Amino acid sequence: MLRHPLRAEAVRGFAPAAGGVVVLALGAVLGASADRWQGGWVETRSELHDLLLVLLPLAAAAGCWLGGREHRRGTEELWGTAVRSPLARFLASAMPLALWLAAGYAVVAAGALLATWPYARGDRPYLDLLPVDVVAVAAASVAGQVVGRLVAWRPAAALLPLAGYAVLGLSVASDDGAGRFVNPAFPVSYWTVPVGLRQPAMAVWVVGLATATVLAYAARRRWTALLPLAAALAAGGLLVQTGDALWRTNPAERRQVCDTSTTPQVCVNARYGELLPQVTAALSGITGRLEGVRNLPVRFEDHPGEPRAGEVQLPMITPFGWSVVRGRLTDPEQYAWEAVAMLRGRGDCGTLAPRVIVADDAVEHYLAPSPAEASFDELDAAGDAERRGELARRKAARERLASMGADARREWLSAYFATVGDCDAGKVPAL
Asked: Is the CB of residue 427 less than 8 Å from the CB of residue 419?
């Protein structure tokens, strides 16, 4: 029975082993960083794409090693007598490895998407970068095999990934260079998505360069390499000329989901809108104690840019891995304390007067004390006389605010929140 010439390379030997190594290695890398991407569709997309910075040079190195096989075996002249054309012989060797490496990356990507699905709190999977990323892995392997065929030096397979990483890394480090627009491994921000022409142009760029390299090496009519080269250069020129316009802000980043039953209202970004009940519950102690208080912001906001008039910024939810891990708030008490700090709004003040410090501490203690408050109090209690005196004043202010009648406390808090963001000690009501 006749067998296809690709079969031997595809089912045994180096190619399937390389594909397996890709799955195991990338799976281990993603597993180690799962806290920062598992649960967010955009984060998963960006994490998978960032793997290309390492995978593309390694795919080229694998191709280079396989391409140098005939040099190591000393069978170049024997293969030169084969009936099949040089291009057919090259493709029979190169395509199985390219497909295995691309399939390995695709398997890892599928696994990451499945791992994110149970923990996602809104939005949708982003597959916009994945097809071209898979193609880029295959193209890097094929181009690397051409290098292996041309360079008989054994260390070439080890040095090629270093050179590839350096080239890709330099374009990443250069924020104002044109190379970043044609770098298929250039990192992607969480809040951006590609415009329609970016992905087709990038595919033509990487496939055109790889095809031109192969045809220039193995085709009988080597001038045919000019056709894919011209297509690649046209696509590359389009990418460079378009520049930053290749990306646009993710529409989901501009939308919010809000709970309007509280004061202030609580809004979270629509990209993870299903976190709203957790965030509202974490801030319920604050919003409950502020019922009836005047001079409060209308809402906690979670959209790009500075808060609008009447809004205050919600404590940071992203990047994942800190406040939120796998779709859950990691420390609701810490999160509530950070929200009080946002309400206070004195982050731009320099040295605060003791009166302001005491008032801020009392409000913080009443609304949502820091999880570390007791530890700091113990340190002050064990300190010198000045620190013990400051601690005594803070504790007395906390007790006075807590012991006020409900109406008196609302009035005092209304006067206090009228001074939000003000560094003038004379305007902050005394306790």
From this structure: yes
Blockwise average pLDDT, block size 10, the chain, 431 residues: 56 85 96 94 96 95 85 52 72 90 97 96 93 97 92 84 88 76 91 92 97 91 92 96 92 91 94 95 95 94 86 92 93 95 81 87 94 91 90 94 94 92 81 83
Task: Write down the residue that tokens 């001079």 correspond to.
Answer: 295
Rounded distance between C-alpha atoms, residue 383 and residue 389, angstroms? 10
